[in-house]
## 1
Amino acid sequence: MNKIPRHVTIIMDGNGRWARQRGLDRVFGHRAGVESVRAVFETSAELGIEYLSVFAFSEENWSRPDSEVSALMSLFIKSINNEKETFLKNGIHFRVLGNRERLSPELNAAIDDLDAATAGGTRMTAIIFVSYSGKWDIAQAARRMAAEGGDDIEKYLVTYGIPDPDLLIRTSGEQRISNFMLWQIAYTELVFTDVLWPDFRREQYLAALEEYSLRDRRFGKVK
Ligand code: FPP
């Protein structure tokens, strides 16, 4: 691979279908998806990718059935608590971005604890987008910018300080952005794969990175 992206972001899709194909409840798909999250984090750290972000829960996802929302929230808390040692050991700074006001006090506490504990990690930054949407981000940035009389909207986006993604991967065959980072992906390379998220592991991730490495990025200029 001749080009390693600095920031890879992933829309993890297809957990529900993966579970349904096996006659299981959707929640089992999300649980299997946690293993894929672990696999891409590990592989990214190994390859020297500096930022890896995943879209775990959108603002729109709040309207899923209560049972699924609460199962996902418990899974986030459990995963955060389980992975603390791994992040610390591997020098990974863990961050959560999104509308934190909508998260439970328990989840917010777990996030703050892990963020503070891993803040010294310099090898990689792992970002989980929870209760996030691109339009929400732009709107909250515009509001804060107006209140402060600022003029640079980038400074007010929740991603301020994080380089824009070089590569966005979406699994499960859907070819759309679904209100994810709208501002930040202006020049991002998009890779879509039919693989469902729980089946997206090291091998499938390497294939997506390979595809990226063959792209010719011009950022609107001529070469
Ligand atoms: C999309 O599949 C997936 C989600 C909405 C949840 C993603 C969450 C995880 C993989 C769990 C853990 C994550 C972390 C960061 C610990 P879908 O439910 O939309 O699937 P479908 O389109 O087949 O219905």
## 2
Amino acid sequence: MKIIMLGAPGAGKGTQAKKIAGKYEIPHISTGDIFRANIKNGTELGKKAKTYMDQGLLVPDELVCDLVVDRVQQKDCERGYILDGFPRTIPQAESLDKALAELGESVDFAINVEVPDENIVNRMGGRRACVGCGATYHLAYAPTKTEGICDTCGKELILRDDDKPETVQKRLGVYHEQTQPLIAYYSKKGILKDVDGTMDMEAVFQAIVKILGA
Ligand code: ADP
Ligand code: ADP
Ligand code: ZN
């Protein structure tokens, strides 16, 4: 099962992608997580990506596409995978489709998590990320047991630099301009599935499971 998660930054793609990956036992591939790991490790890719991410801009397609196309051909992706945060532009979608077509494959579902901009600001302002393992929480909607401390690894939680209000507005603009056109792209292919992302996390998950089938 090959799944793509679409939706604005902060819509809940990562939250749902983790749950789906767990239920269907397929890898969760987040390009944002890949970039953040590269930044943490000080790689060349990380250095390049950071300059764009800090400004709330997309990393150029040429730095993203090959990386994902290589990743989905690894052994653990044989039974499928869930892509979170990729594709984010029409050229990225085309490059994925082309690479898959060469393997005789295609994407099965594009799940579009719909959340209005008003709610997004709230979601991202309250999002907290673990500096150790990258786990995501929310001050109000997904709090940790001990404030400021990761439930999983015990490390400290931070507000991501790009989740600060100025950058959030910028990222929303970039989303509407560059990523939203993917909704029509996948709709034309007949694989788009809309989900109401304003429901609580478990209700959103159940709606997605219904689409994917048990
Ligand atoms: P969010 O989960 O809030 O949408 P991500 O973790 O997916 O954020 O991405 C963080 C940042 O990493 C993006 O704002 C962008 O700069 C960069 N990024 C991630 N995926 C891509 C991609 N497919 N194309 C271009 N840039 C990307
Ligand atoms: P994305 O990957 O789309 O950027 P996340 O999964 O990181 O989004 O979610 C953004 C923030 O909103 C996180 O702090 C997360 O805990 C919270 N969140 C996710 N889904 C919901 C939901 N259905 N209701 C309330 N808060 C949510
Ligand atoms: Zn942690």
